[in-house]
Each structure stands twice: as structure tokens, then as C-alpha cells.
Amino acid sequence: MPPILSVAGLEKHYDSGLTALGGVDLEVRRGEIFALLGPNGAGKTTLISIICGTVTMTSGKVLVGGHDVVTDFRAARSIIGLVPQEIALDIFSTVWNTVVFSRGLFGRSPDPAYLEQILRDLSLWEKRNSKVIELSGGMKRRVMIAKALSHEPELLFLDEPTAGVDVNLRRDMWALVRRLRDKGVTIVLTTHYIEEAEDMADRVGVIEKGRILLVEDMTTLMEKLGKRRLTLVLQHPMAAIPPELAGWPLELQADGQQLLYTFDANAEGTGVPGLLKRLGELGIDFKDLDTERSSLEEIFISLLEPAR
Ligand SMILES: Nc1ncnc2c1ncn2[C@@H]1O[C@H](COP(=O)(O)OP(=O)(O)OP(=O)(O)O)[C@@H](O)[C@H]1O
Fold first, then answer.
1. What pTM value is reported for the model?
2. What angle do CA 186, 173, 299 make, to 5 degrees?
């Protein structure tokens, strides 16, 4: 199946002379949740804005559902739903009129039952007759999502959807995103809450200084770059790592009460049995042990470090 989004050789040089995108190639598969991660100013919003037609590209080619976003803009845009970072709503319009109007803008025939379902999914149904100005910030954000979904897009962009949003709304939003994915909607999201990307995304792309550093399945990425850590809580605190253990990648933590061993999550021989044996030989006892996997956040930071 052809990708729902295909970006090739995309460059954006702003008039200021700044290169926001320096040749981006990217494909997003139909039906996936794709997380685009990158530090502030990496080019995420510029990329999304070009795809959605609000910023013009300098060069390159972008196809959405096979439609060129420049030469076939209307067809491409009708497939897209965009929830931008900034809240942009007619504050004197009611919630209901906002979604009805937005659907109409895309030339879709009225479908009150569909719009009702969206508002119910976003816990906005009770507020349908309220004016936007009367809503809280979190509710306005939900209206932005309802508006973006009003014309039944196949590809939904969520640019920092959970910035400044409380825990409950965040949970509701992610539940909705999953339901949309289950209905076949493709979702591209940017977030600074990397643990959310880890929980939600099927694939992840990392962008830095206008270039894509990597695109990978989440599970593959975690396996490929993931490290595991073994923490041993010692019976007797140590002042320093004994010279007999100098060959092992160990660190002392918690005032010498914990010994930390980091190893490759996929290595055949992790070295853990050997380490435990050696500790036994040296008479180093421990009262507890714990293993954990490195998070996507740690992987993300380690990916960016060489580029800095
Ligand atoms: N209209 C503009 N004119 C000039 N430069 C711009 C313009 N819009 C964005 N930029 C610059 O382009 C670069 C990429 O910005 P962009 O907003 O795409 O980054 P981002 O990855 O979305 O960042 P953030 O995570 O902070 O939202 C930045 O250096 C930014 O200052």
C-alpha cells in the first residue's frame, strides 16, 4: 500500500536566511501513529506547516494520499486534519457551530450524527451550545481537535497536543487517538513528553536542525539502542569500586550503597552471571537487585548528543 504521506528532498529556507529544513525525506504509513521528535527549533512545525499548506516550501515534493500539496492542494488538504500548537478559534462561535462550519469549509455534506460522536468522544457534547469564549483552556484545546476531525480526515497532525494540558485530558486525548487509529486514521504527532511517544507511537522519527536523523519502529529502536541496567543494593556501602572490578562498566551510586551495571539489552552474553560470580568471589554481598530498560528519552538524548 502506498504511504499516506511521502516527503522527498524537502527544503525550507526562510527569508531571514535560516535553513529550517535541509532536505527531508520521510514516509508515513497508512494507519500508524508516527511520533516526530526533536528539540525546540528542529523544524517540526515548519515540516507540518508545509505539508498542510500554510508555509511554502523552497524545494522538494510532498504527496498526501498521492496528491501533491502544491499542484493539487485542495485534494491533499481535504485528507488532512491539523491541530496546531496555537489555539485559533472564533471565540464568539458556539462549539457546535465551530465544527459544523469547519466541516462545511471542506465541502463535506452535513453529518450531525458524526459531529455529535466527535463531541461526545471529546467530552464536549454538554458544551455544544457554549461559546468558545466561555470555555476553559483545556476545553478550547478539545474544540481544536473536534474542529480538525470535523471533515473526517485520513491523516491527523497533532502538534504538541498535550502541552499545558492536565493529566485527565491528556489521558482522554490519547484514548481518542488510539480509537482514531483503530478506525484507520493515520496520526502524526509531535510531543515534548517523550514517554508519551514511547507509549503511543508505532514508529518514531527524530529531527534535528532540519534533518531527519532516524526513522524506526518503536520496538526496533528500543531494542537496537536500548540499554539495560542492573542495580545491586549492597550489604555494605563501598567507598570506591575495587580494582578487581576495574574491567567492568560499573558505577557507584547512592553514597556507595548501590552498584550500577549497564549492558546491551540484546547482547547474547550480558555479563550479568559473570559479574555476580565475581562479586561472590570478592565477598561483595548485596541485599537486593533490580533491572530496568533505558527509556526512549535516554535514547533520544544520546542520539542528539553527537549532533551537538
Ligand atoms: N516565519 C519564520 N521566519 C523565520 N524563521 C522561522 C519562521 N518560523 C520558524 N522559523 C525558524 O525555523 C526553525 C524551525 O522552527 P520550527 O518552529 O519548525 O521548529 P520546531 O521543531 O517546531 O520547534 P518547537 O519544538 O520549539 O515547536 C527555528 O530556528 C525557527 O526560529
1. 0.81
2. 70
